[in-house]
Amino acid sequence: MRKYIVKRLLISVVILLIVAFLIYVLMRSLPASYLEKIAMQKSQQPGSKSYEEWLEQLAATYDMDKGLIPGFFGWCSKAIRGQFGDSWFWTVPVTQKFSESVWLSFIMGGIAFILEILIAIPLGVLSATKQYSKTDYAITIVALTCYSFPTFFFASLLKLVFCVKLRWLDLGGLIGRNYEQMSSAGQFFDKAVHLILPVTTLVVVSIGSLMRYTRTNMLEVLNADYIRTARAKGLSEKKVINHHAFRNTLIPLVTILGGSLPGLFAGALITETLFSIPGIGFVSYQSMVQGDIPFSMFYLVFMSVLTLLGNLISDILYAVVDPRVRIA
After folding, report:
1. Cα distance between residue 194 and residue 196, in whole Å
2. How many helices and strands in the chain, by DSSP H and E?
3. At 66, is the secondary structure helix, strand, or coil?
4. 38: pLDDT strictly greater than 80
5. Domains present along the chain, CATH in parentheses
6. Percent of the chain clearing pLDDT 70 (strictly above)
């Protein structure tokens, strides 16, 4: 196992370098550049230098006057030392802006992920064990409905019902009007209340696919020969389902759960925008639109690292879930 992990980590470093280079090329090729906007603004001031002169000066200041290869290796040399520079658009260090926004998205994504597992997997198993029953049809309808909901539509529907019609919750934002006058406990619950609708949106639009995936894999396992043998031996249906069938159903689910690690830090762009939540999804989108190369590079490379790590965790979990799997 140790040799396998070390080998995968070394391969991941090579893959990460290739991915980082491709990201850097794409960032340098963005049609909208923050430097161009700043140069245009400065050139329009009375008695200022020309646009070309400002652009040349700013490019030299931010090391953008170098070619792709020298520029990329220059970025890598700084990144290895933990120096990611300042965000051009947010005018603060990249890591500072990232830490300010990522944990909010992580909390939202983590809560939604846990609820998704607690709701979707049991319902998927129940639907498979009661195939073609009213329960199965009801769960299937719910799953397909949730799967078909566009995020913006369902979020807008929640806001219409709970914010406009019932007036139970605020339309958006992370804090209420009287947040500063509240106690520490009051501030905590105020933020928690403002996250109810965003988290609900993330859960509802996500559980459909996981329910259907769980049901499909559970049905495949229930039709296997060893399940019929277990039943023929007189084992209770509860033991057959929970001990034999469900554990083998977990094997393909591990891929989804392990691959969900990047999603916890990626943020939810549409949901965060609709509910005015300053999470990492909204911040990264604004950075890319504004041509903020330092922040966009850090964010995308960070997501690449999590993706590689998530794949490694999935492979390791295979051996944990199924003793027949041996990593060699």
Report:
1. 6
2. 16, 0
3. coil
4. no
5. 2-80 (no CATH), 94-297+312-321 (1.10.3720.10)
6. 93
- Measured between alpha carbons, how far is residue 209 from residues 37, 48, 104, 107, 146 in Å? 42, 57, 25, 22, 8
276 Rama class: left (phi>0) / alpha (psi -120 to 50) / beta: left
- Output the six-digit token pair for 237: 């249906």
Tell me how far apart the alpha carbons of residues 303 and 324 are, in angstroms, rounded to a whole number. 32
pLDDT exceeds cutoff 80 at 267: no
| Integer Cα distance of 326 and 328 in angstroms | 6
When the pLDDT of each residue in the chain is averaged and rounded to a whole number, the result is 84
* pTM, full prediction: 0.81
For the record, the structure tokens of 280 come out as 């990492």
d(CA 144, CA 127): 13
Q: How far is CA 57 from the centre of its chain?
A: 37
CA angle 78, 80, 86 (to 5 degrees): 40
Greater pLDDT, 45 or 187: 187
Q: Are the beta carbons of 106 and 303 closer than 8 angstroms?
A: no
For residue 204, how far is the Cα from the chain centroid?
A: 16
